[in-house]
Amino acid sequence: MRILLLGDHSSYHCGSDAVWQTIRRLLSRDATLVEPWQEHDAVVMNGEGTMHHGSTGFHAKMRRLNQAQITGRRSYLINTLWHENPLEYDPVLARLDGLMTRGEASRADLMLRHNEAANATLDLSYFEPIDESALSYDWTGRIVTTDFWVENFEFAWLSADFARDWLRVDLREISWSSLVKSLRTADLLVTGRHHAMYAAARARLPFVLLRGNSHKFLDLLSAIPTPIPVALKQAEILPMIKWAQDNRTVYNQLFDAIEKCPEPDLLAPRPTGGVPITKFYEAEALAKVADARRNYLEAGKHWIEAAQTGDNPATPLRQAALSYLRAGRIEDGMRALVEARAALPGKLNLVHFFPKCPQTISGGSAEKALLFTTRFWTAPTPHLHEKGGWGEAALSAAAAILLKDDDRFRAEAARMMAIAEARSPVDAVAARLALTFYLIHQTRNLLAEEFWDAHAPAGRPEWETVEDNFHVLTRTLPFSERTRGARDRLAAELAKPAMSKRTDLRFALLEHDWWTRAPDRSRAEDAVAHARAAPSDAAIFECALSSCIEATETGLAADLARNAKPPLLAAVAQKNAAIAAFLRETGLGPKDETIDDIAGFMARSRQVEQELIERLSDPQRSLAIVGNAPSELGRGSGAGIDGRDEVVRFNRFRIGGEWAADYGSRVTVVFSVLAAKDAFVYYGDLPPGTIICFMPCKRRFIERNWQRVAELEAAGFRICFPFMNVLGDLGRALGAWPTTGLMILHRLKAIRTSLRRSDLFGFAGGPDETGRYAYDSGRQGNDMHDWAGERAALEAMMQD
Questions:
Q1: CATH class of 611-797
Q2: What is the pTM (predicted TM-score) of this model?
Q3: Do the Cβ atoms of 194 and 149 come closer than 8 Å?
Q4: Considering just the CA atoms, what is the radius of gyration of the chain in Å?
Q5: Residues whose CB falls within 8 Å of the CB of residue 159, separated by 6 or more in sequence, listed in order
Q6: For residues 177 and 199, what is the distance between their CA atoms, to the nearest angstrom?
Q7: Please, are residues 218 and 156 in contact by the beta-carbon 8 Å criterion?
Q8: pLDDT tens digit string along 232-249?
């Protein structure tokens, strides 16, 4: 067959040249290519990238195909983009002998808009052989960039300031083989060029795309179900680069898929009958793309659609919550969160979204970071909040908290709940939870409990009410009688057959008991019962075994360890310092260097603890116990503090410099409830040999973070974990969360038998008249602590 081949764009750039050479090579196998003035049997048109939105090139090519048909010649349109073209040439499309797009998106457009079936393959540049002898460049470690399509300017380059360190490559000034070979050495490609994307795919190089004037990129990207996002504007390029670097496996899926594509038969007959059309993409895929572009409002909408159409709504609802919260949509985000929990209780509940420790947020999910940043509440995106909605009222109530205007808070909170309750029970639950946990984060625990009690929504499931009350009360008044009642009601719920598989609540209950109940056999037996009810849950097993060890119930602990599956025991011991030490002391557990290292570290810490107790209990050694209250300012106590044998300080403190005159310059012992990650920040410049005593609010803090604490030991500090039960002991006695200072005084009184007022500095029993409770900053007091109870307890300890 004699073929007239049209649509030569080879002079445009190397990608178009690769297309043209591939077409000529493939057609020449079974046909003769002729010149326009020679006789021919068929016209083959290379559609390439002009066939979109009724462009001038589109009209010219379709008219030429129509002319071929009128003169009785066969007609083929190959390697074509097709995107939202007018319908006037539908008769020409219907008469084509062959129709082949360069991807699925174009084939779908032809079917959906024109009811025309087409074959689909890759852009033909992909099949051009690479000349391995061609010149190549070493772009190792470089981000390579090309030009981009810009409306009204066609193609342009990113500014030098934006792409300062990137290597510019012009497709008009390099051969196809040189481009592919050189890209093999690069780190990443950032492009707006369709053929540059194909060159990167041929080189198996991840790429970042900036949207062009058609769906040309989707033609290739739709080859796999996992979406690769396309930046819609320049500002999205940088987050797309991070996404590409974090998702190399997605690109490998694409590269693996297209490498299996055979060279096409360009003269293949058209498909008969309808062609199934893939939806580009499903709602979940579109949501992931929007999240990657940081268009969180769009992502939230797609996640909601995915929840409505999928079999398992809980996970997309949770993702919708996260996306909406990132967009500043507190109403939509919290509503999705509440619905997610209802859809899958036990997997998605409050414990996953709100702080597990009553005093601090100790890291965790992105939802926590969003819900508890001041900026989220004080600097929302104005147009994203529904005017007159409960979200607007919630922000106003939160502002009142920051201004310490409790009366205004109560009024705004009541207005918020009235709006939410009028909308739906889900809105009422969502609003109540959001504001309650914001109050807890601001350490306004008593006000949080007051608000929580005043606005209990009606018509909610019993399990939800019991669970929510437990989570809130354990974060407001964890040691109160009321909280113990909530704990017992939750335990009763878990005894019901319908709730027996709620391992999440078992863990929450077990962890709460761990730091509020005395470490005795009763608590250990309860913990073992939870572990036996959930034998495959690693977190529950870890908590139970640690509870037995802490209660010195060696027999219970040994039985639990022996009956555990070896991989579970090894995995827990490699993370938990107390368990590792116990296994080595008892000869249980697997041989493992990590476990040996942990056990050695814990043994050294116990030696330091013993020395510490001997030093602090020696009545011949003078003692200065220095709190952080501003009560010493202006008193000139620094010299007296520094003259003592032992100088004990707490948490965040400042010494020397401007503080030396009133608070001294020495420290020998630090008691800290700070997170291990903060230890070097506050203690890294202290003298080597200083004893740092960690007393975390959460027991797993030490056991799970032993490596970070061990780094302090390697830097010359001496580490121990004394007085581990003091939080629970004193908390139960006070019925409230004790301060670190009072906890230490409580223990020092026990080991020294007496305390003198003259040994105490910087203890005021509460904030000063301005609300400040730290001498070195403006940190304000809070209602987490029972200050009256603290002062009474302090008075009872004094001997002079």
A1: alpha beta
A2: 0.61
A3: no
A4: 35
A5: none
A6: 9
A7: no
A8: 888 889 989 999 999 999
